[in-house]
């Protein structure tokens, strides 16, 4: 109670006018978004948000014909990158390095071949020969930011930033709020979240639920854990629900960019807390690919990341584990 | 087909029942054993439903080869033959001739309701595998006799065309009920409404009763048999139950056009063991609700369309969501605008329920398995429909009897 009162007092002192809650929500990037912020007045409007989202789509959306990323994919050498493409592909290259190539935004041709892309799924799993051919076009080492341009070494290199575009968008919307001196907010898009500050008038921290992975097609409305976050981002990547049955194999939608085949490991979902949503969103994917042992090792070496992992035991039951920093965020550890 | 005299028809089947006197083993010698992978199938009755199933068979070319078609009306046969799957099929005006053809291993029976039993019986006695459209039989005694007949032919499959038992969506709903998503279900609302006469065009006046058999009580169980039976069957299946008490009402309230079956019906069913009430209604004079199917429980509601389902958790179920400000998850639940969650069945888009039903018919034959929609479940639903019609037409409260359990 005492710890809750002090920030509340501070909030009261620094706020010239009483704060009110404002809610914005809508559809974007094939999913929904929701923003809650506290301010004396409605300083950020839905129009501003929509403008921001439209700008990002024009740059990063594979679903939008003529978008900058589609131009890049169709080009032989590359394109002049705008702010969004520069930031996101730059971050993607960093994570590519940090994860030893497990996180790779050029994996798109393989994703399409396995039927998880934007095009209709092929009837069968790709042949080994097809995978070998496609692998020649995959690898972020063939991708470079040079001056104002994003260039590729091989014309067939295709970029897919869908895995981190949502996290990035959450950051852009958070920045929009910050520019308007808003310090108490929650931004959520497609289950990727960034928060700062507290709720008004109670002064509570933002509470974020982590969805319980349900391996059946229908997801039960249930939460596995609830965390309290002062500032930062939380995102989740999972291997459940989105899969295709090809023969006897249930193939998950995450493809190993090095082998060309879907990751087959015990990971069910990875929830990552980081300073910003772009970082969290990139690493939740990478941790999924690492498998449990490597993921835990990696997390020990990266104290800037906190994570909560759900995985399958050899006997088929689900188990979970979390970094110590994540455990401190849990509402009911 | 309704024009051929029922008396004559009964005599013919009387002759065929002679086969029953043979010991079981001997009867089975005559049963055509399916040999090659594809099943050679004949379609008896080429009206809307028969033609609809022919189109579905077109999508199952590795499982069925349509070798025979039968309809009394030549124009229907001609129309059916235009469907690609049936282009090479031999045409018959008399189903008995089709059943005599040894090349035919299995038959789809899509004739008017009052003929279901007779044609199915003849097909079984001719050794065929049988896919019999719903409702299984016109009345209860026929249902009882068909059960006996099928039990005497254990090597033959009889599947009843309640295709929702085969739809992945409806299967998922059955699972969700078992898993407790709905909590305790007390009310089920079902409607199948239209704003239209439910008549088919008649090329010449003499064919009225044949084509619009649904309008005449001699041939048809009306809206209850043709439409509501699907939902009645689904509830029997999903809750593993049956009706205990049935009340009903109805009338010819809008289409006073010489029809005998009611154009507006409502049935109330008590499921005593489950503590549930089922409300089943159909009208031909309003289309707003169309197909409606709602299962209401203490924890949530499932609202079903033919190929779409939405789960609406009750407020109490949602409570835990109220305690958080945001939810992170790999595959975010997308709530629709009314606060519901779409029920999904996997990546593949849903096919027509009959596609799944016919695929399973193939499997049931090949593996000699009892289909999910079999003669016993079909008989229970036929009894429910018949009791509903008794209640509607006689203003009585009908009670389930133990002999309708068919256990």
Rg over C-alpha atoms of chain B, rounded to the nearest angstrom: 22 Å
State the distance separating the first and last CA atoms of chain B.
34 Å
Query: What are the low-pLDDT stretches of chain A, counting only 5+ consecutive residues below 50?
Result: 215-221, 241-251
Helical element count of chain B? 13
- Runs of chain B with pLDDT <50, length 5+? 1-35
Domain count of chain B, please report it: 2
CATH superfamily (homologous) name of the largest domain in chain B: Dihydrodipicolinate Reductase, domain 2
Question: Which CATH architecture of the largest domain in chain B?
Answer: 2-Layer Sandwich
Could you explain how this protein is built, in words?
Chain A: Its EC number is 2.7.1.180. Chain A: Its cofactor is Mg(2+); Mn(2+). Chain A: It holds the Pfam family ApbE. The complex is a heterodimer of chains A (333) and B (407). Helices cover 34% and strands 26% of the residues of chain A. With 333 residues, chain A is α+β, with helices and mostly antiparallel strands. In chain A, a hairpin with a 5-residue loop joins strand 14 (306-312) and strand 15. In chain A, the strands form four sheets. Chain A has an eight-stranded antiparallel beta sheet. Chain A has ten helices and 15 strands. The radius of gyration of chain A is 21 Å and the shape is globular. Chain A folds into three domains: 21-62 and 170-204, no CATH class; 64-159, ApbE-like superfamily (T-fold); 207-333, T-fold. Chain B is α/β, with parallel strands linked by helices. Chain B folds into two domains: 6-162 and 356-375, 3-Layer(aba) Sandwich (Rossmann fold), CATH 3.40.50.720; 166-348 and 385-404, 2-Layer Sandwich (Dihydrodipicolinate Reductase, domain 2), CATH 3.30.360. In chain B, 35% of the residues lie in helices and 20% in strands. Chain B contains 13 helices and 16 strands. In chain B, strands 15-13-12-11-7-10-9-8-16 form a nine-stranded mixed beta sheet. In chain B, strands 3-2-1-4-5-6 form a six-stranded parallel beta sheet, sandwiched between helices. The two termini of chain B are 34 Å apart. Residues 1-35 of chain B have low confidence and may be disordered. The chains are: A alpha+beta (333), B alpha/beta (407). At the A-B interface, strand 2, strand 7, strand 8, strand 10 and strand 11 of A face helix 8, helix 11 and strand 14 of B. Strand 8 (206-211) of chain A pairs parallel with strand 14 (326-328) of chain B, so a sheet runs across the interface.
